[in-house]
Amino acid sequence: MSRKGLPEGFLWGGATAANQCEGGYKEGGRGLANVDVVPAGKDRFPVALGELRMLECDDAHYYPGHEAIDMYHHYKEDIALFAEMGFKCYRLSIAWSRIFPNGDEKGPNEEGLKFYENIFDECLKYGIEPLVTICHFDAPMHLIKTIGAWKNRKMIDYYVAYCDAIFRRYKDKVKYWLTFNEINMLLHLPFMGAGVLFEEGDNKEQVKYQAAHHELVASALVTKLGHEINPDFKIGCMLAAGNTYANTCAPEDVWESMQKDRENYFFIDVQSRGEYPNYAKKMFEKNGLTIKMQDEDEAILKNNTVDFISFSYYASRLTSADPEVNSKTEGNVFATLKNPYLKASEWGWQIDPLGLRITMNSLYDRYQKPLFIVENGLGAVDIPDENGNINDVYRIEYLKAHIEAMIDAVNEDGVELLGYTPWGCIDLVSASTGEMKKRYGFIYVDKDNEGNGTLKRSKKASFDWYKKVIETNGECL
Ligand code: BG6
Predict the structure, then answer these.
(1) Distance between Cα 56 and ligand 1 center (Å)
(2) What number is the average pLDDT over the span 409-427?
């Protein structure tokens, strides 16, 4: 079947996050953040979960984000390569602790503001629209130590002050904003995702949902603020998406898969519909959770819903109601059973292009707001041949199938979609594993898991392929 492409104006591009590509973690007055103390190796997961407390760096660990791919010094070269691919849009995140190194200063750090201003100017020079994630997992360490980050309601004020500074400074350069990357990650990796740590005797669910409430109120407040500062701003939420399938057609399995999906939808239900869904209220009741709210919170959430729904999609998930069967789930961030109908990546992420169309339709049916796919891609080992070339046909195959499914969702199902920014358009540090060898990019960066390499950038085969995709608006895959 030959497919038509997507309409003019569709925002093709790529995505990165500060803590995984910038490096320069002590430069330009930047303060320490949770993301800086998450090491590579066996302690990564316990630290990310908040089970192993690490609030400073030590010599016994390697922290891959400290230098990452050093985009801090290479951004001009990198953006030039994005422009060469024809990017219409570049999704990046601002490191909170570059703007407010401790989080509680009276005013922002000019050097940090200037750094991102230069990046935006560089993008705009090539006609690339920046899409900014305000918080991609990071929280200033000082706020973690002094107030417990998102556990504490005071965090809202600091986040609003941070947004106020960047909204005002970039109001004529940035139109698209995301308040929190993968906001549901708070439930899965509380320390890495939100700077949340637990104390002895804490009811973890209680702590996490209270922190979630603070993030949700903060998100609504800055949506209001952003719209006041520039009514043209488009402010979105961001979900780690991927529908959960039922292991069998037994109604119990279907019910279980619905519960799993709701765990994730919960955040977006609040951000998009403006109120806590009844199923969540019942769940709190059943589990004895009490979320402390202030009188004004309800109205804040109700009156300041997001303009669009963005999400990451890598894989679908699979679950069973039978604890015996479910105990065989794979140990990734999102636990899932092995789906016998799907192949998986080298890291066990199950490859399901039709799942993207299913996820898009589910989200669009539920919220009826424009969608934005802000992450998608294949993490794979790339091995340069004897001439240094990387023929990443596996990545092209993955992306091609997902773009086809995405185009079908738009052209066949009528889903409104603003853009597509595949993850790690340039190789960067993996969030879950801290590895460099889990690569997503169209651009290869010479650096290994141990931190060795020249940082030289080179084009993979997927570079020219994606260029063509953008040129033809998805018609030529
Ligand atoms: C998302 C995150 O979870 O998936 C990114 O927003 C992350 O930060 C991406 O890098 C891919 O995951 P990983 O673990 O392969 O880097």
Answers:
(1) 23
(2) 98
